[in-house]
Amino acid sequence: MIKFFRHIRQRLLSEGKTGKYLKYAIGEIILVVIGILIALQINNWNQVTKDDKILREYLGKIKSHTQEDMRMLDSLTKYRKNIGNLCKKARTAILDKKEEENLLLLMGCGSAFMEFHFKPNTGGYEALKNSNYFGKINNTDLDSLLIRYHRLVDDISQNEESYNGYLKGQENYLSTQFDKSLVLATAFLPPDSLSLRATSQSEYFEDFKEYTSSASYRNVINLAAFQFDWMIDLYSQLDEVGENVIKEIDSYDN
């Protein structure tokens, strides 16, 4: 092709057609410029397509991780609701001074000493933030949702840390005040096995009564009755924002 254009230029010069040569040269320059612009446009389009594909991969990971988080939130919500409801009933029994007839209910509230930890998968979001593609969602609805999502994650983490820290303190104190042999045996050994032991059932219940009447035990029950509702509300807020994050990512894909 280059030889072809060169041949035309040489022929025009040899024939002394300077005017036509200049017009031809200008036309050739215009063609070259157009060719360069087309090449740049194609290159830009290829780069945009490449960037868009990589961004979609990041968003796909965030969507997958958010779905994992929501499944975990669902399980934690169910556990907290069950334990919270037990603690509310136990609190009512305490206020009504009906602890003895609700001793088993009070013992069931020992599950309030369980530590709950919501551990979200933030890998996809952190990877996007540390990449060159984060700016592509900056100041968008998705950006605002992700910021709110991770603020709620921080709030949940702080509340769980505070509650679990309090539990440890109360549990450590109880361990210094009570021999929990009978309590633990009832919790982990089958009833038919316990019936073969020398310890009578009345002794187990007497131990339960003393243990559940302690201030530390009741403090945890009362705190759980309030705290679990607050945590469930935070879980619900996070779940709602998570749903919107997924919808926004889906709309971006579409």
Automatic annotation (TrEMBL):
The lineage of its organism: Bacteria, Pseudomonadati, Bacteroidota, Flavobacteriia, Flavobacteriales. The keyword Membrane applies. Keywords: Membrane, Transmembrane, Transmembrane helix. InterPro entries: DUF6090. The chain crosses the membrane at residues 21-40. This is DUF6090 family protein.
